[in-house]
Amino acid sequence: MSTTFAALADPTRRAILARLTHGPATVTELAAPFAMSGPAISKHLRVLEHARLISRGREAQWRPCQLDAGPLREVADWAAGYRRFWEKSFDRLDEYLEELQGKRKEVTGPKKGKVHAKKR
Amino acid sequence: MSTTFAALADPTRRAILARLTHGPATVTELAAPFAMSGPAISKHLRVLEHARLISRGREAQWRPCQLDAGPLREVADWAAGYRRFWEKSFDRLDEYLEELQGKRKEVTGPKKGKVHAKKR
Lengths: 120, 120
Hints:
Chain A is mainly alpha-helical. The first copy, chain A, is built from six helices and two strands, in the order H-H-H-H-E-E-H-H. In chain A, helix 1 (2-8) runs antiparallel to helix 4 (38-50).
């Protein structure tokens, strides 16, 4: 799981996985949308391959990459175990936003007072 | 998301989150199950706090930690987007295991041959 999470902790690597949902791709094809050198992309691919999130074809020259989403199931299952806790977090966020709205009303209060003061 | 994944890429930090599902805990309580110094645990807590996965109480001396599972919802949603692909991966794993079983049968073949050779 640590290897999977570490591999996912990079936006380029997550973008590569998203690209591979459309089908296998070569390194050149994967590099195209990024302002990144071939070796930089290859390094990301090695990290993804090590985490078993992608695998590479055997055709020596092209070696197309394909998505292996198996480890993402573990991630989904692991995170789903916290469902009842994030529901709690959102309840707390609601409370916080209500509290904040209350404060905003307090802030708008004095402004009205100023207008009132001008009238005097 | 990168910050969340990076925070989750460590087994101690994931164990801390699991512990906090039982309720808030102090640094001392969190450190207890680990053969780790207070400062080492505090460093992990800072990473989790930075990723908004935990928050800490305001009571100056104890500052109990509590789980904020909100970012884990994002992780779960993100990973769930790959569901149909991991189902594909498992189909491929099935194929691979079948292939492997086929090979195992081939391997047991020659062993029988050896026994046969002794008899000669």
